[in-house]
Amino acid sequence: MTEQVRVHTDNAPAAVGPYSQGVKTGNMMFVSGQMPVVPTTGEVLEGDVGEKARQCMKNVLAILEEGGLKADNIIKTTIFLTDMNDFGAVNEIYASFFDDSYPARSCVEVSGLPKGVDVEIEAIAVY
Questions:
Q1: pLDDT tens across 11-44, in order?
Q2: Given 44, 89, 107, 113, which residue is catalytic?
Q3: Does residue 68 contact residue 24 with C-beta atoms inside 8 Å?
Q4: For labelling, which of 32, 40, 69, 119 has a CA lying 20 to 30 Å from the CA of 77?
């Protein structure tokens, strides 16, 4: 079995359940879904869904950085939305985190997310 290393940073929200912020294995890193939670306060960001998506991505990147990676290393993301009508606003902010080399992505509407948030983003990256 390939060695697994748990990744944790105080620059992203603490896990709200029995999971790791990120896991490195082989040449890959898996980042758990990140909600629009401000790491310094532990509070859910209020307001515009685009700004919430920005906070999700900041949290994803903080975990990646702890593991020695950056946005360019992301090969796949999944965005979870509670309302697909938010897709345009989230997509605009999401795109701003990448140069022209976008990762593969899925975006799905779900009936609910933890803490009542309306967006969550997870990522897979390679070294």
A1: 999 988 899 999 999 999 999 999 999 999 999 9
A2: 107
A3: no
A4: 40
| 37 beta partners | 44
Residue 107 is a catalytic residue: yes
Q: pTM of the entire structure?
A: 0.97
The token duo for 66 is 């702890």
Phi, psi of 94 (to 5 degrees): -55, -45
* Rg of the chain (C-alpha set): 14
Q: Can you list the domains of the chain with their CATH numbers?
A: 4-126 (3.30.1330.40)
Q: Is the pLDDT reported for residue 123 higher than 90?
A: yes
For residue 67, the one-letter residue type is G
